[in-house]
């Protein structure tokens, strides 16, 4: 019989995070979704039948406080999914403001680092051989003009994944990443409707000729955190329909 785990999903109020939370909940885990948007967290938690916490992943004091609350309610976090990140700030190399790059890196890199550090400390202290899954991007390995700030942050997330994996292995804690290509979230589907030139341009770069569904990414996260992946750590798994092959 599968053991029920406490799973924390950051950025869990929508998009990929919501899909990941739903997948872990469907697998029988106790799921906590965390996000900065209190209204969306409350709504998502109610709709999925999971727990919700308001959290800014760049605020170390808030992380400590919310982890205390989660432990009191659901026990130690055994699976952390670092999904929260900033995708909407872009700009060409010659045009992107330094302050914008700082905002991207603070959220996507510092936030992921702080969550990993705080949760891993507690895993080690409690003797929990847990799993951490970071949501990265194939953009960390395959550049797209105008998206370099975001893609640089995801290359750093891949490096952070390897760093955490090698140092936490002695504690039985596995750290991996899922690296999607473009994912058909509700926001992306609205901005790039089926049949639009922009959507067709993206699909033409993908050997399987379709964008990833949210469920494709969620399934990879559940796999990497589960018993079928107990000898996998330090990897960044592309979920990209073969786009990195082109």
Automatic annotation (TrEMBL):
Keywords: Oxidoreductase. It holds the Pfam family adh_short_C2. Transmembrane segments: none annotated. Coiled coil: none annotated. The keyword Disulfide bond does not apply. Its EC number is 1.1.1.-. InterPro entries: NAD(P)-bd_dom_sf, SDR_fam. GO terms for molecular function: oxidoreductase activity. Belongs to the short-chain dehydrogenases/reductases (SDR) family. This is SDR family NAD(P)-dependent oxidoreductase. It comes from Streptomyces andamanensis.
